[in-house]
Amino acid sequence: MVAFEGVSKRFAAGRTSAEVAALDGVDLIVPRGSVTGIIGRSGAGKSTLIRLVNGLEKPTSGRVVVDGVNIAGLDEKKLRDVRRSIGMIFQHFNLLASRTAFDNIALPLEIAGIDRPTIEKRVTPLLDLVGLSDKRDRYPSELSGGQKQRIGIARALATEPKLLLSDEATSALDPETTRSILALLKTINKELGLTVLLITHEMEVIKTIADHVAVIDGGRIVEQGPTFDVFTGHTHATTRSLLGGLAGLHLPEFLTRQMVEKPEPGLRTILRIIFKGENATEPMLARLGSDLGIEVNIMAGAVDEIAGRPFGMLVVSLLADEAKITHARSFLADHGLSSEVVGYVR
Ligand SMILES: Nc1ncnc2c1ncn2[C@@H]1O[C@H](COP(=O)(O)OP(=O)(O)O)[C@@H](O)[C@H]1O
Ligand SMILES: [Mg+2]
Residues in domain ABC transporter (predicted)? Predict the structure, then answer.
């Protein structure tokens, strides 16, 4: 649906500021019908990236192709037509305070010169879709944050777009409201077949809704692919730090305090074991004891869900020499469990 091909974006130096390379050689594919997430820290270039999709910014070099059309090559009039097929939602909703919920949703249709009866026919089911039929005559000041975002979503859908862009749409909402908005976006993706491209700094958002993800850092895409693969492979340092909140990735304080980096006779080895749903760990841990004669203590662990699939980490300590540890790790690997030595404790 969207392809970035060698896209770079520089903002020229200002009177008191240096030139900024906001994006640097970005190659990125947003599959049609997917929910694709782009995650990165503040200032990584996420908003710049998404603004290139609807032509609010032009790339310094490279191409941004949306549904077969190179956006940068369009004149203003053609760009307006393309924008109608792209909806966008924002962190601060951007509703007009002087317009009711209904009239906010109707706005893009009015701008497109659509007649009143057609507008009525379009907006009413959208209010229903976002669960706010009873709020049609309310003003934004009379709505909660979550309700405002629902109106923002309905407005973005009014022109029947093929692509929905979301710039931190849940960042101003509490966790529970965030979940309900993400569920709504997923429904829209599934039932209306809309491709959704969302950018966020929140791991939770990606984990919950994105089937594809790209990790951006300093204007470069450092990793991309199916969400589960990217986040359970955790190869890149940026991805790892963004995953920080994920259960089990951070070692408990009591462990790190007493941990040393080098093995010594008599020290226990701290092993982090990663399991991906299909591979139950429990019998494996028991067998480390019964088959290999290694004593196993569980120190920390948790199971989480990424893109609908279970994913867990377990931190264990093993009392065994290096040869036995190596043996234990290859035994685990033979059963589909990856592991890493994170340190040693007494
Ligand atoms: N219009 C602009 N003029 C100059 N610099 C900009 C402009 N827009 C963004 N930047 C800079 O580009 C970088 C990326 O910004 P942005 O895309 O907004 O990041 P994010 O959305 O990931 O927080 C930042 O260093 C920001 O200061
Ligand atoms: Mg931003």
Answer: 2-243
pLDDT score at 276: 78
Q: In the structure encoding, which two tokens stand for residue 233, read together?
A: 């492979």
Q: Which residue has the higher pLDDT, 301 or 19?
A: 19
Output the CA 186–ligand 1 centroid distance in Å: 28
Per DSSP (E only), the strands in 144-280 are 163-167, 195-200, 212-217, 220-226, 268-275
pTM for the full model? Answer: 0.85
Q: Phi and psi of 261, rounded to 5°?
A: -85, -25
Ligand 1 pocket (Cβ < 6 Å) reads 11, 20, 22, 40, 42-48
Torsion, CA 159, CA 160, CA 163, CA 167, rounded to 10: 50
Longest CA pairwise span in the chain (Å)? 82
**Residue 138 clears pLDDT 90, i.e. is over it:** yes
Residue 4 has a pLDDT of 97
One domain for residues 175 and 33 = yes
Question: Which of 245, 268, 302 is a domain's end point?
Answer: 245
Shortest-distance ligand to the CA of residue 57 = 1
Task: Say yes or no to pLDDT of 247 above 60.
Answer: no
227 in the same domain as 273: no
Q: Is the pLDDT of residue 109 over 80?
A: yes
List the residue whose alpha carbon is closest to atom 26 of ligand 1.
Answer: 43
Q: Which whole number is the average pLDDT over 268-285?
A: 79
Ligand nearest to the CA of 168: 2
Mutate to test the pocket of ligand 1, among 8, 11, 242 (most ligand atoms within 8 A of CB): 11
Residue predicted with more confidence, 43 or 305: 43
